[in-house]
Amino acid sequence: MTHAHKHQIEPIGDWTTWLILGGRGAGKTRAGAEWIRALVADGAASDGGAVSDGGAANDNGVVSDDGVDRHTARAIALVAETYADAREVMIEGPSGLCAVAADLSRPTYEPSRRRLVWPNGAVAYAFSAEDPDGLRGYQFDAAWADELCKWRYPEETWSNLQLALRLGKRPRQIATTTPRPMALIKRLIAAATTTLTRASSYANRANLSEAFFTEIAAAYEGTALGRQELLGEIVDDVIGALWSWNMIEASRISHYPPLSRIVVAVDPPATSGPDADECGVIVAGIGEVMGERIAYVLADRSASGLSPRQWAERAVAAFHEYEADRIVVEVNQGGEMVKAVIAQVDAAAPVKSVYATRGKCLRAEPIAALYEQGRVRHVGAFPALEDQMTSYTGAPSRGAGKSPDRLDALVWALTDLMLNPAAPRPGVRRLN
Fold it and tell me: In sequence order, which residues have a C-beta less than 8 Å from that of residue 118 and are 6 or more positions away?
């Protein structure tokens, strides 16, 4: 890579995983794309890049004119948070694989097969962390895992990727992500086969808008969130936060039992438009395990910049998708108008109004206690929600910016299910 930063240059040594932890805009995606480009450019495929079980093995090595044994690849896995992210960021993005390739060696993306094919026969397949089993049946000699800390099912997806990384003498992988204190990330850092690179947003300042640093980054400097999102540091716990990362990790599961009730909780913003607060939309249910009632967080459908009609449509869509019993919505800001907006989308959807008569912290404390008691489970990972939970102390802080609306919606959902439970509808049993 011409004019590469130090953190974007492949490290020397006998490693299996190159882990790049970096802040927003640090150049992680470019580093991943350039590493894959170099692997493909240094090797020539001879069998069309077949990657299914039984495919021919690649010896992963080529000795260049300077006598250096360089790793090569022809069967590659590209794993992102979603299939859309794999295409829009890793493949066709401004720093993706198509953008970094020279004209004569630019790969072609085949959407119907979710694969990228280079002129020399090398092939890369795109995968989603929302579908861990999608990696079964494939085998690779190289892989690029992007935004690992945002994956919905990180453990399962990573495990399946490792089982597929079995071609050649020395299969390798690169993982590029803004860090969070996940158990998987900590294990990778501690592994003897991992080489770790760190980079902050400021390391790539020359290629980013100055407004990003003067207006956005400045608001987060000196905060725990800023250390994570700008400096690329792993911030374990925020002093005074109601939730710790250990509490969150202990709650994480992949599957849930039959549920007797499911609700969609909505914390609508007071205004609409691009500068409005997020609209918190959380789906949660309740089930019974060995005689104890357990709450399960199923989905986070929160979003920013929504009009009242748009957030109502989002909430109603989640209501139908999960066959929920009702929509729980905070009406402090809009009163009956909030219920009316939902009725315009689906007049038959049952709506329960809730009113915030106490402060956010007082409402959140009993829910945090449920996590401490082990009575809440997260079905997969919810990075944005979990970041709000582990940074919320109840006190205004610089860099906190807008209201933690995902957290508010979570509190309303779990309060309705666990603290003010209604009788389940007869015969309602749900499996994931």
Answer: 40, 45, 49, 101, 105, 107
